[in-house]
Amino acid sequence: GIHKRSPSMTYDAALMLMCFDALGAPTHDTTRAAARSLDFLLRAQDDAGGWGYNPSQARTYFDFSCTQFGLLGLHAAARLDLEVPARAFRRAATCLLDGQEGSGPEVERITERDGDFAGGTAHKDRARGWGYRGGGAYGSMTCAGVGSLVICRDHLGRADTALIHRIDLAIFDGLAARIGRSQRVCEEIHQ
Question: What pTM was estimated for this model as a whole?
Answer without folding.
Answer: 0.86
